[in-house]
UniProtKB/TrEMBL annotation:
Extent of motif 'KMSKS' region: 239-243
MF (Gene Ontology): glutamate-tRNA ligase activity
Residues noted as binding ATP in the record, renumbered to the chain: 242
Reaction catalysis annotation: tRNA(Glu) + L-glutamate + ATP = L-glutamyl-tRNA(Glu) + AMP + diphosphate
UniProt source species: Lutimaribacter marinistellae
NCBIfam families per UniProt: gltX_bact (TIGR00464)
Keyword set, alphabetical order: Aminoacyl-tRNA synthetase, ATP-binding, Cytoplasm, Ligase, Nucleotide-binding, Protein biosynthesis
Enzyme class: ligase
Protein name as catalogued: Glutamate--tRNA ligase
Compartment(s) where it occurs, according to its Swiss-Prot or TrEMBL record: Cytoplasm
Subunit note: Monomer.
Length: 470
């Protein structure tokens, strides 16, 4: 292994941060961070027609939400075009590349003729070994001289050794006729200049590795460690697409999934460490290795994501949860929590986070502490209130006024009251939930009363009983 591991994530800024791209970024981040290495970010913005600043911003925002911090400045591939062209011309000067004057029409005619004759349509330029003295003064591309015999072996850490016969590789174009570099050249030069030691990317790039190795070998550069990971499929086994639901990382933030749960789930999507399902970032960085990546496509399962997110919410620090919920509200276009609401939410977190799988679920449970009087009951809560007489809630209030407002005392007071009314506490719980929260599904009555405090709890009960609030 090199002295320092250097990985990179190199998205094209033509849209949001796709969930597959997010996983690729995560794998690179985990591999570098777990080895004290560097994780670099390069924006492959050479397609000027499709690349937009908005897409770049969306990618950076998605990575920011996921907590995938990168080292150094963001590299723009487009801005490095002069360096890419310099390498192509160096190969030309060294006789490892050549000028090709064949026109698009000539190449198309060659392929049509080859198809008709049943021959390979792989274009072999007649200019490969032409004497430079015979070169016309005409537009040309620069092509690399690919080896014609033998084979190229991609030693891949996930796919194993992949062998490609060299007679299947064409003399790839390096510089177009307008002097602009092609993507394949740019990637190799950038990875070399950035010191990238490990290229971890989707297996749709596997064939590209063979062509990129032509440049590495021609320049005498060390080939990086390859790791081509299978793509993500939907639950139906087909390539993940919009028909399966949300695709962008930011969409999942706006739906209220915690970043830690998303990282955990994406790490398990195609990689495993024994039977471990739930783990922390520190464990993921310690455990993650390339030999744990499977060769089969992973299937995206929303229920597994929700399950893991629920586990992460349950163990999260209360202040950190409050902060992330604030970011969720902004992403989802919801009103920001007031300072008081934030304080109350954090104070109530102990009775909110155990069974919430997403932030909308948690905020629904937190309705009792985020709302203010007068409490507007929803339909189910209104029915629960209608099931008891106003008098019962009215009778309960004075008894609670003398309670010491500890959980034990509240439980004893309410159970004794239910017994005196010849009923069980469970029968009182529904109306109490409705009075305190205006909802039928809430944290326990005792937790709500402890969080709200004596004065607010009694005021809500009195209000529900139709009595004036003192």
């Amino acid at each position: 292994m090199p002295d320092q591991v250097v990985t990179r994530f190199a998205p094209s800024p033509t849209g949001f941060l796709h969930i597959g791209g997010a996983r690729t970024a995560l794998f690179n981040w985990l591999y570098a961070r777990g080895r004290g290495g560097k994780f670099l970010l390069r924006i492959e913005d050479t397609d000027r027609e499709r690349s937009t600043p908005e897409a770049t911003a969306a990618i950076l925002q998605g990575m920011g939400w996921l907590g995938l911090d990168h080292d150094g400045e963001v590299i723009s591939q487009f801005e490095r075009a002069p360096r890419h062209a310099e390498v192509a011309r160096q190969l030309l000067d060294e006789g490892k590349a050549y000028k090709c004057f064949s026109t698009q029409e000539e190449i198309a005619a060659f392929r049509e003729e080859a198809r008709a004759a049943g021959r390979s349509t792989l274009f072999r330029s007649p200019w490969r070994d032409a004497d430079p003295a015979s070169h016309p003064d005409a537009p040309h591309v620069i092509r690399i001289k690919a080896p014609i015999e033998g084979e190229t072996v991609i030693r891949d850490q996930v796919q194993g050794d992949v062998r490609i016969r060299n007679d299947q590789l064409d003399d790839m174009i390096l510089l177009r006729s307008d002097g602009t570099p092609v993507y394949m050249l740019a990637v190799v030069v950038d990875d070399h200049d950035m010191g990238v030691t490990h290229v971890i990317r989707g297996d749709d790039h596997l064939n590209n590795a063979a062509r990129q190795m032509l440049i590495y070998n021609a320049m005498g550069w060390e080939v990086p460690v390859w790791a081509h990971i299978p793509l993500i499929h939907g639950p139906d086994g087909k390539k993940l697409s919009k028909r399966h639901g949300a695709l962008g990382a930011q969409e999942y933030q706006a739906m209220g999934y915690p970043a830690a749960g998303m990282r955990n789930y994406l790490a398990r999507l195609g990689w495993s460490h024994g039977d471990d399902e739930f783990f922390t970032d520190a464990q993921a960085q310690e455990w993650f290795d390339l030999d744990g990546i499977g060769r089969s496509p992973a299937r995206f399962d929303l229920k597994k994501l929700e399950n893991l997110c629920g586990q992460h919410i349950a163990v999260s620090d209360d202040a950190a949860l409050r902060h992330e919920i604030g970011a969720y509200c902004a992403a989802a276009g919801l009103p920001a929590l007031t300072s008081r609401q934030g304080d109350d939410l954090e104070r109530a977190m102990y009775c909110l986070k155990d069974r919430a799988r997403t932030f909308p679920e948690l905020l629904e449970k937190a309705h009792f502490v985020l709302t203010e009087r007068p409490i507007e009951p929803d339909d189910k809560a209104a029915k629960a209130l209608a099931s008891v007489s106003d008098g019962i809630l009215g009778e309960l209030t004075p008894q609670l006024q003398t309670a010491s407002w500890t959980r034990q005392d509240l439980e004893e007071t309410l159970n004794a009251f239910a017994e005196a009314k010849d009923t069980k506490f469970g029968k009182l719980a529904g109306p109490l939930r409705a009075a305190l929260a205006g909802r039928a599904v809430t944290p326990s009555v005792f937790d709500m009363m402890l969080v709200l405090g004596r004065e607010e709890s009694l005021a809500r009960l009195a209000e529900a009983a139709g009595r004036p609030v003192s």
